[in-house]
Amino acid sequence: NHTMVTNIRHVEALRRTQDSLNSVSEGLINPVTSEFLAIDIKQALYYLGEITGKVTTDDLLENIFSKFCIGK
What we know:
Blueprint: H1 8-29, H2 34-52, H3 57-67
């Protein structure tokens, strides 16, 4: 059985999910603190939420503004 993803936004979200999970795997091999692992796991869940609809517009805006120092 194969699954085909036809929405480019979903493909990108799945790629980012995979990257985050790869970071978790690397963190388990080359031990990092649990906080760093939790960040990568949370990020993977966030990307999956973009596909499932668990991430709202407010979540997207919060994510954007948390990465940029706007108004500081």
